[in-house]
Amino acid sequence: MVLDEKDRKTWEELGDFFRGKSMWMMHFCTGCGAIELPPAMTSRFDMERIGMGPMATPRQSDVLLVTGYLSAKTLRRVIYSYEQMLNPKYVIGFGSCTLNGGVYYDSYSTINKLDNYIPVDVFVAGCMPRPEAVMNAFKDLMDKIKAGTANGWKKYQENKEWYEENQKLALGEVDVKDEFHE
Amino acid sequence: MRELKLFLGPNHPGMHGNFSVHLYVDGDIVKRARPLPGMLHRGFEKLMERRLWTNNIALIPRICVVEPDINEMVYAMGAEALGNIEVPERAHWIRMIILELARIGIHMMAFGGIGGPTGLYTGPNWAITERDLILDIFEEITGARVYHMYIVVGGVRKDLPKGIEKKIENVLDKLEGRLSEYEDLILRNSTIINRTKDNIVLPEEVARELGVTGIGLRTSSGKAYDIRKVDPYARYDQVEFEVPVANYSDAYTRLETKYKEVKQSIRIIRQVLEKMPKDGPVRAKVSTGSALKWRIPKGQVFSHIESSRGEYGYYIVSDGSRQPYRIAVRGASYPQGLLGIEKYLPGTRLDDVAIWLDTMGVCAPEIDR
Amino acid sequence: MNSMNKIIEDIKSKYNVLNIEQPTKQQVSFDFESRDIHAILAYLKSIGWNQLTFLTCVDFIDDKEFQLVFILMNWETGITIQVRTRLDREKPLFKTIVPIFPGAKFYERDVHEFFGVEFEGNEDSKKGLFLELWDDIPPMRKDFDPQKYSDKKYAKRDYNVDFKKEGEER
């Protein structure tokens, strides 16, 4: 496992260069931040011209955009989705709520610190961040990928036990078998 | 015959927001449907009890993400009713501008959004760009694109900026000029007509049984059941507008009604700009001294307004202290989003489920709170 | 205002009303004994208040009581009626109103989840809806402290403190 960018092999460097040119983000509106994604995707801001676009399924996407607060129930689905994604995969935490809980700091149902449960490469602060901020975050992520410093997914593999322990503490059981109690 | 379980959402392009419907299908006919809400649950009702009356102004717009202004309005109306606060005349009219602009915004999003489930992506691209013109106006008035925190108890936060009337009129002119193109793109498009006409029919008995309000009730009953008419708030009794109704509620009629409501909202804003007092105070003083010590007299009130999806209301209980004792949120899409899905989706085709969610206006954050 | 007075007189003459309030000019609220509620709801439905707008609950912990609130709307006159009743907080039990208003099914489920009020006859109401794997008392009760629960379950971010008051630790 290579965590230091200096130890990258040539083919990895090449791969990172191309990965940083086209980002597919997963279509998962986890919170209110998703309301600024349609303007960013459609013709006014048009994020596709800088190489980012929406993707319907987790298995084909590179980036998981956690748009805003996560309730415990969503965190569970986010973890399922994150684990379905193929390596290399990146996470953007979007909005103040992913950083420290934001206005929901004392809520009984929302988590306060996203990088405790899944590794986050880029955070965007604000409530709500503007479409320009979304695109800016993507640009930052692209630069990080090209430089080889976006290594969240490697961290997740190496510290799997630590992440799983945190997930268990917040969620009790990560897998839910019977959602409707039938 | 075999039953297969499918998940519509939470990460599904045809889903509005973070909401899940589990479908048990046979072929492509839905046999059973189970809504799974709660993924946007933030415990707002509890948080509001813990904040001061003033602090809540920052919290409430976040309950309904697509149309935040209605939250501010019902909260302000409730507190004003309990506290006997007289709102200045100009503030009423400014509130109407904000509410109607927001209504146009969400209707544009829903109207163009039908392109999602029907596979016509020009619709969303156009409509969301047009909606951005309205967000620009909001930004100029309030300083924020999405969460405005502009309508406060006792009026509005500050007066309109100079020259904004001209800009609003320009935006309305531009929108109105484009509306005929939308008619061609969406309402006369054979793809959309084939998918929505005589599809997802909502009979009047069902609407009554579920407690569906708003467009769903108006298009099925043929009566103008609109709170702006039935129990007018702000100054809706002083402007002229029609409430579009129909006697047969299929997906197409509901879509058309949204389109007609956009036209009526434009008409209302035009009248407001003409009739509103040109100057005067916009915010009544609600308390003497610090806003942190502000108290609302004891009482219980249900304040309601007409949102784009129906009757939206807060049940506010005050015990005379600095914090609200309890605020309960009646989300407008509660009936169609939960019981409607469970009871009336079975029997429809799998690919029409998203059309129900779209045209009935199921808004996940206000169901979950 | 005529129809407003008419309905108040009508209800007063027919049922045992404990208290009447009129918060706004298009709204009236009645307090009843809990055993009268079903008859009143059925009666109000038959005379035009045919929409159950909302069903919610308020926790009056000092009185050791829950208050159930049924909000009914008459679209013809625009008058909203609040029908309210109090339940014992120790044993909150109420007969379901689903046979009168089928739309109440999920509201009852909601109230059960957040307050723990049991609705007899609505079996679905005992299932969880919004919360998943909940492991504490119903969260909307007044004696539930969300801050404490959040501190216990969800990790907080540590910040460097640039400035500290005199005598403060850290």
From TrEMBL, chain A:
Any one Gene Ontology BP term: aerobic respiration
GO MF annotation: an example: quinone binding
Cellular component, GO, one term: respiratory chain complex I
Superkingdom to which the source organism belongs: Bacteria
A Pfam family recorded for this sequence: Oxidored_q6
Limits of the NADH:ubiquinone oxidoreductase-like 20kDa subunit domain: 29-140
Annotated keywords: 4Fe-4S, Iron, Iron-sulfur, Metal-binding, NAD, Quinone
NCBIfam families noted in UniProt: nuoB_fam, PRK06411.1
Family: Belongs to the complex I 20 kDa subunit family.
Protein name (database record): NADH dehydrogenase subunit B
Protein source organism: Haliovirga abyssi
From TrEMBL, chain B:
InterPro entries to which the protein is assigned, alphabetical: NADH_Q_OxRdtase_suD, NADH_UbQ_OxRdtase_49kDa_CS, NDH1_su_D/H, NiFe-Hase_large
Gene Ontology MF terms: NAD binding; oxidoreductase activity, acting on NAD(P)H; quinone binding
Annotated keywords: NAD, Translocase, Transport
Ranges of residues in domain NADH-quinone oxidoreductase subunit D: 119-285, 294-369
Pfam families: Complex1_49kDa (PF00346)
Family: Belongs to the complex I 49 kDa subunit family.
Name of the featured protein: NADH-quinone oxidoreductase subunit D
UniProt source species: Haliovirga abyssi
Organism lineage string: Bacteria, Fusobacteriati, Fusobacteriota, Fusobacteriia, Fusobacteriales
UniProtKB/TrEMBL annotation, chain C:
Domain NADH:ubiquinone oxidoreductase 30kDa subunit stretches: 32-149
Top-rank lineage group of the source organism: Bacteria
Record-given protein name: NADH dehydrogenase
Cited PANTHER family: NADH DEHYDROGENASE [UBIQUINONE] IRON-SULFUR PROTEIN 3, MITOCHONDRIAL, NADH DEHYDROGENASE UBIQUINONE IRON-SULFUR PROTEIN 3
Leader sequence residues: none
Family of this protein: Belongs to the complex I 30 kDa subunit family.
GO molecular function: NADH dehydrogenase (ubiquinone) activity
